[in-house]
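Weekly structure sync, notes
Attendees: PL (lead), two postdocs, one rotation student
Agenda item 3: pending single-chain targets
PL asked that the sequence for the first pending target be pasted directly into the notes so everyone works from the same version. It is reproduced below exactly as submitted, 42 residues in total.
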Amino acid sequence: MAREKSFDMAEDFAGLDFHSVRLEERFVRTMETFYKQPDKSI
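Predicted structure, written out during the meeting:
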């Protein structure tokens, strides 16, 4: 059985600075969604 590698998007994008906490959190949630569904269309 293949072991799925997990990522902590918040940690991966910790240096992100949109000058808005709301936008930074939204970006991380969006990236998590893309990561979980790589075969889906944007």
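Discussion points:
- Residues 7-37 form one domain.
- The chain has a mean pLDDT of 85.
Action: rotation student to compare against the earlier draft before next sync.
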